[in-house]
Each structure stands twice: as structure tokens, then as C-alpha cells.
Specification:
It is built from no helices and 22 strands. By secondary structure, it is mainly beta.
């Protein structure tokens, strides 16, 4: 419950449960005066002793957590870095956010996530690295959630390609997602590249 104290034969709230301090300097009668911004407990108007979540206490003043950091608890003297795979782009926040699909966060304390590069993809939130496209597939754009299948007449014989290779003269790829081209059968030929 509330606690009170006696001053000049009058009973006053000690104000500590109200995010305020007892001010008998400037008001008549004395009263509880709210602490400053983001301050949940204070000794006077200029000295905070406990800060709200999203901030930290620095020499009696509440400071907002920087971008890339957060604080989900009140009364702290530092902020927590966002974990790898997450970010926070704004200051003074109480949580970090998972990197969206198609992006990754390799390090902690990031204010933004990085798009997956061509040849890679990110199929879920919170990745710390992107995945390489499988053989027979490619991705020519950044920040994508899946790879594309090589079309007929093309192949991808390595992982992580940003483009498929056309089948050479005398070879063909009759299906999509091929990792190699097949030679033309005896008695037939193919004089153009990229044929199916």
C-alpha cells in the first residue's frame, strides 16, 4: 500500500509509488511532483534513480536505448543489444524485431537487417545468414524468400548461382531444375545454345 510521513504535524504521501517525488520547495501546500520523462523513481526534479523500460539510467538521467539496442525492464543502467537475426531501427524501444523474410542479421546490435544477395534466399524470419540456392536453381535478385528453377535449355551445376547457364551446342536440357545438360542422341544435332 501507500506509505506516508509526517511533516510539520501534517501527513503526506512519500510519492515513491507514484513515479514522483515529494516537493516542499515550490508548492503550497507541499505535494508530489512527477519525475521527469522516462523516469519511474526520482529523488528530485533533476535526479532520477530508476528509469522506464526502453531507457537506461546514466548519471541520474534517463537515456533512450540506441537503435540496435532495447531494454525490456525498468530500472536498468544499460541496454541490451539485439541478438543476431534481429534488429531495432528506432531509439527507446522495449524489444527487438526478427529480421524479415529475405533478409539476415549476422551480428548483434544491428539497427537494420541486410538483404540476401543474388544466389541466396531467406525463407523465414530471424535468419543469421542466407541460404544458397540449390543446384538447378538460381536467384538473380536480392532480398528474396525463394530461388527460381532453371528453365528448359539451361542448367545450374553449383549452389548459390545468380543465373543459370545455357546448354552448349550439341547439348540440351529437357526439364526445369537441371544440374547438367544432356548430349544430343546419335544421329541428331543442336546448333544453338540454350535448347530443350
Amino acid at each position: 500500500g501507500d506509505s506516508y510521513f509526517l511533516l510539520n504535524e501534517d501527513c503526506y504521501s512519500d510519492c515513491s509509488t507514484e513515479g514522483a517525488y515529494f516537493n516542499d520547495d515550490t508548492t503550497t501546500p507541499p505535494a508530489c511532483t512527477p519525475c521527469g520523462d522516462d523516469c519511474s523513481e526520482c529523488d528530485d526534479a533533476s535526479t532520477c534513480t530508476s528509469c522506464d523500460a526502453g531507457t537506461y539510467l546514466d548519471a541520474g538521467v534517463c537515456q533512450p536505448c540506441a537503435a540496435g539496442y532495447y531494454q525490456d525492464e525498468a530500472g536498468q543502467t544499460s541496454c541490451k543489444p539485439c541478438a543476431a537475426g534481429s534488429f531495432q531501427s528506432q531509439t527507446g524501444q522495449t524489444e527487438s524485431l526478427a529480421c524479415p523474410v529475405g533478409t539476415f542479421g549476422a551480428a548483434e546490435g544491428q539497427s537494420a537487417c541486410t538483404d540476401c544477395e543474388p544466389g541466396t534466399y531467406g525463407d523465414e524470419e530471424g535468419l543469421t545468414e542466407c541460404l544458397l540456392c540449390a543446384v538447378g536453381n538460381y536467384q538473380d535478385e536480392a532480398g528474396e524468400s525463394a530461388c527460381k528453377a532453371c528453365q528448359t535449355g539451361y542448367y545450374a551445376d553449383e549452389t548459390g548461382l545468380s543465373a543459370c547457364n545455357p546448354c552448349a551446342v550439341g547439348y540440351f536440357a529437357a526439364y526445369t531444375e537441371m544440374d547438367a545438360c544432356e548430349p544430343c542422341a546419335a544421329g541428331s544435332y543442336q546448333s544453338e545454345t540454350g535448347q530443350s
